[in-house]
Amino acid sequence: MQKVAASPISPSSQAAGKWTLRSSDEHLIDLLRGQAFSKIDTLARGLGVTATAVRQRLERLMEAGLVSRSRADDLLPEGHSRRPRGRPSHVYSLTEKGRRTQGDNFRDLALVLWQEIRSVQNPEIRRGLIARIGSAMANQYRTAVTGDTAQERFESVARLLRDRQILCDVSPAPQSAGGSSSNLAVLTSHSCPYPELSDLDRGICSAERLMLQELVGTAVQLSECRLDGGSCCRFTAAGAADSQEVIPVTLCQS
Questions:
Q1: Which of 224, 190, 188, 191 has its CA nearest to residue 205?
Q2: Which of these CATH numbers, 3.40.920.10, 3.40.50.150, 1.10.10.10, 2.30.29.150, describes 15-99?
Q3: 77, 91, 123, 139: most buried, per Cβ within 10 A?
């Protein structure tokens, strides 16, 4: 019997948690985008595959929360006759999560918006906008950041960044030049979270510094920047009020 090759994973596929769309799944989603509440036989004809293949794909997409199934009779207008008793007929449509799997153009939008911020001539207004952006960025993480000390909160931030596919880790800082021991920590991200925006100007670095400052709850300084020729962007934060810790937060370009 001839083996059917597994559908390749498209480079543009998007992960739903740990679940990744296959190219064949994307074709089915595209079909559902234009033909909401479709039956399996309709989808099979549109894709040129068997009904069994469509069922398997639909099961995957429903498990990922991208497709929902409804009884066809439940969608009939009031007064329309329903099917005789027997096996129910189902139709399939995209969920809100499924509708968001394609058509994302956030990258271009972010670049355009940042260019508009750069075009603001009044430095006070521009600084205010960047401060508000930093605060808004912090709000995305604020409720999930835990810990009593700066180091604990940095470790919490590191976990959140890893959840967003930004590879990072927390490690002890090297000893000082005098050989004295300290309880410093370094958070290192091995990929720039905003590479294209940072290439435009260092305003995004300021926004990131303000974000970290709000999340850690202490002053943060940008002590090294890739835009100045450094190998990484290093943010140094003061420790807790009852300590003289200084905790470098390092976001390195991969």
A1: 224
A2: 1.10.10.10
A3: 91
